[in-house]
Structures are given as C-alpha cells and as structure tokens.
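Exercise (ungraded).
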Amino acid sequence: MRQRHKPWADDFLKENTHLIIPNPEQKKGKWQELFGNDNPIHLEIGTGKGQFMAGMAEQHPNVNFIGIELAKSIIVMAGSKMKDAGRDNVVLLHVDAADLQELFAENEISVIYLNFSDPWPKKRHAKRRLTFHTFLEQYQHILQPEGEIVLKTDNQGLFEYSLVSFSQFGLKLEDVTIDLHSIEDSENIMTEYEEKFSAKGQPIYRCRAQFD
Ligand code: SAM
C-alpha cells in the first residue's frame, strides 16, 4: 500500500489513544476489559486504511475488533475513519504482527482476518508471508481452539502457497473459493484492495482455516 508522509500523524496518535492503543503489550490477556464486555475478539492483520474493520464493527456490534497495521502513515488514516464511524467495538494497534504473542494471551482471539496480505513473491522472502509457518504457530497460540483464520486475496500465488501452508500445518480448510464475488454473500465486507482489484475484473480468492 502506498505510503505518503503525514505530518499530522504523530499528533493524531497522541490525541487518539482511545482508538490507536499505545503500549498494547500491557493489555495482553485484558482486551475484553478494555472493551468493557465479554464479546469475542476478532483480529485483522494488515488493516490498511480500515474500511473492513469499520464495516465489520458496524455489521457485528456484539463483536470486538482489533486491527493491526505496521505503517504509521496508513494506520492514522484507518484511525481517522474509525473516529468518523464513532463505534466503541473497534481499536487499532500500530505494531508489527511478528510479535503477536507479546500482545495477546493464549486463546484470547476468536477469528483472524488476513485481507490482501503482501504476497512477498520471492522465495527468499517466504518467511515474511503472513501464512508462513512461524505466523501460523502464533495464530494457533492466540486463537481459541475452535477459532479460525479467514483469508482473502487477489494473488493466486499467495493463495496457493497459503492453502499448502495451512494443510501442512494440519489446519482444516473450509469455504475455499477462487471467485468469492460469484457467490451470493451479502455479509461480505469489501476491503480497499478488494474493491480495487475486483473493479479491474480480477477474481477474489477466499478460504477459512481451522486448527481443530
Ligand atoms: N487489508 C487492506 C486491504 O485489503 O485493503 C490492506 C492490504 S495492503 C496490501 C497490506 C497491509 O498490511 C499494508 O498496509 C501493510 O503495511 C500491512 N502489513 C504488512 N505486513 C504487516 C505486519 N507484519 N504487521 C502489520 N501490518 C502489516
């Protein structure tokens, strides 16, 4: 995703600590306390500008959503969107997903969304893919046993790689489709990338994967 320097980003982060949570490792095991309820927590990794999180938070008021985004110039755009939406069931974390076990306790998360993750096509970069086995180990730790990973992408290479990686790790695959938009799914919330690629006529790949 294109990053442009945002001179207002640092001020936005300082002024919106209720939306983009500072020192999130201090909330490990206590995320439901932060939301003030017992609702399940769904996590999106690589939230981008936040369209999916904002739409999901509105569609599912009884679910708590956490969006993780590495790029400061992008997370402040997501934060700005959440501020406009005014919902209390979504927060964002400006962190790298490489350290998820520092942020979440065992079984603290119910669903993980990987939407249009960077494909890292070169073989030597495979370990950066969010479906590389080291990430799956972390997901297994923080997900409840019946929890699931939901992956959407326009990238055939990443999709095929992820299906193999999930299977090799022993995950059970469900709802595998190579053309999500040909299926009637009124609940599907489109991400920014999904809108962009489907407008160009590219198919959207989707699958769900469960550890148990
Ligand atoms: N999910 C959004 C969508 O579908 O429109 C954005 C997709 S964009 C291709 C991938 C996003 O993931 C970028 O904003 C990038 O900064 C973020 N990202 C990549 N690796 C990450 C990581 N290890 N931790 C957190 N965010 C990451």
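Further reading is listed at the end of the chapter. For now, observe: The longest strand covers residues 143-153. Residues 72-85 form the longest helix (14 residues).
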